[in-house]
Amino acid sequence: MPNSSTSVDLLQHLVGFDTTSHKSNLELIHFVRDYLDEYGVRSTLIDNANKDKANLFASIGPDTLTGGVVLSGHTDVVPVVDQIWSSDPFSLTRRDDKLFGRGTCDMKGFIAVVLAAVPEMTAASLKHPVHIALTHDEETTFDGITNLLPELVAMRLAPQAVIIGEPTEMRLVNAHKGQGHLETVVRGVEGHASLPDRGVNAIGYAARLIAGLGEIAESAKQRTSSVPGLDPAFSTINVGRIDGGAQFNIIPGRCSFEWEFRSIPDGSNRSIVDEFNEFSATLAEQMAAQNENAGISTRALLEIPAMMPQPDSPAERLVTQLYECGDPIGIAFGTEAPCYQQADMPVVVFGPGSIEQAHQPDEFVTIGQLERYTVFLRNLTQHLTHT
Known about the structure:
Elements: H1 7-16, H2 26-38, E1 43-47, E2 54-60, E3 69-74, E4 93-95, E5 98-100, H3 104-123, E6 130-135, H4 143-154, E7 161-164, E8 173-176, E9 178-187, E10 191-192, H5 202-220, E11 236-244, E12 250-251, E13 254-263, H6 269-290, E14 295-304, H7 314-322, E15 329-331, H8 337-342, E16 347-349, E17 364-366, H9 367-386
Helix pairs in contact: 1-3, 3-9, 5-6
């Protein structure tokens, strides 16, 4: 058996792979595959359409697809462009108890701890398997989990629990907001700025649409969720990007803006979109009355359902039995958990690190958090050995 690597050693390797979402993750995936192979653990790789990214699925323990535990994480990270770092983001740097580098918190720290636990897991006489699932493109399109889940369903995987190791500071999460990313395009009619009635000002109508989103957001504040931990406890809307116009003295013929919503776990995803579409249709009629070529279109670039609370699920009971993590809470950020829920797999989110460090310059995870997760995985291994 090869010499065991610590979670810090493994995290150093993982951070060294630049798996920013627009790049390939294959170097990291192949590293993990080869590492697992050294311990006799075979991996299945599921390629994306372009063959430049892959998911990984591996199993440790008895050859059964029922009753095990899935440890799930994503391999991609967000960009470091325009961020000011005090050290190389793709080289692990230690300062006191903190390990700095892109992905240390979100979520290569989790992956490193899982890999470091593999020698102990393979040496144990597990009565139920541990599955490792690693995906790509969680930070952008969710294409990875979208490609992986049909494979898991086809093989009839029926785990006792799926544990997604997103950074929750070792708090147990059973709910989170849904998320939508949309692009609205306003098609106007260009003309000379001195003759505004002869054109249709796309930016002007876009401004009215954005103001309408603001009113919808204000209205959403009146509907709060009782799920503990959601901050804020109501649905939110953000317009994050706008582009339009050619020159100050030309009536703009086009304007587009990208916006997102994060909806509380009460099934209100569609109500936000429906309310916006209704307002948008009214403005589109006014535009068409000025010029038949003018109009508004909106398309969803990404839509993630909310993670709905499932109190006392098998996944919840398992984690609380193995680790003192307090009562379940909700979180505002999204994960792949709803995808597992849609496949009828009990799932919770429970991992090392804090979301406050994720996506930031000088992202870090503490060694203490990694050590605490190591204890949890050791407890999990013992549990699967004796029950």
